[in-house]
Design brief:
Elements: H1 2-67, H2 70-75, H3 79-91, E1 96-100, E2 103-104, H4 113-121, E3 134-137, H5 139-148, H6 153-158
Parallel strand pairs: 1-3
Antiparallel strand pairs: 1-2
């Protein structure tokens, strides 16, 4: 009996060993697959990173071109206005907004009627009471485009 019990326990252990070996082989296969995926993802990351670095360099070049001469122009504007503009621009995408039909296009809130008249007459620098952006009247830009000989928006839509 003892001999049979020992043989049975040996067979059971051999079966367990075979199951463990199969599980180890399966885990090793899975590990190799994951390592291959990881290597592919790592390569893709390196490619995307290089593309991102190139795009950043391109955008920094465009930014440098866009900001060329800003310091000279900013020196002509009162310092408090420039500092307020920079502070507003730090919180929002832009520090200025067009006023169209008495509505600030930055926050879509109505501008006080008297303030709208001041903006139209170009009597001073006005700011929106809601979003604090500096306001300008959109008609100025249309007039400048017409004086420069560019087509008006109406002519473009008809064409």
């Amino acid at each position: 009996r003892e001999l049979e019990t020992n043989r049975k326990s040996i067979k059971d252990r051999e079966l367990e060993r075979d199951k463990l070996n199969a599980a180890i082989a399966q885990v090793n296969d899975s590990l190799q697959q994951h390592e291959a995926e990881f290597a592919g993802l790592k390569e893709m990351l390196a490619t995307k990173s290089a593309e991102g670095d190139a795009r950043i360099a391109e955008l920094e070049g465009k930014r440098k071109i866009a900001l060329h001469g800003r310091d000279e122009l900013a020196a002509q504007i009162p310092r408090d206005i420039v500092s307020r503009y920079d502070a507003i621009r730090g919180r929002r995408l832009t520090g200025v907004a067009e006023v169209r039909d008495g509505i600030c296009q930055g926050c879509r809130m109505a501008v006080r009627p008297m303030q709208y008249i001041v903006i139209q007459r170009e009597e001073g620098v006005e700011r929106c009471a809601n979003c604090q952006r500096f306001l300008y009247w959109g008609k100025w830009l249309e007039d400048e485009k017409l004086e420069a000989g560019e087509n008006s928006p109406i002519e473009k839509s008809e064409a």
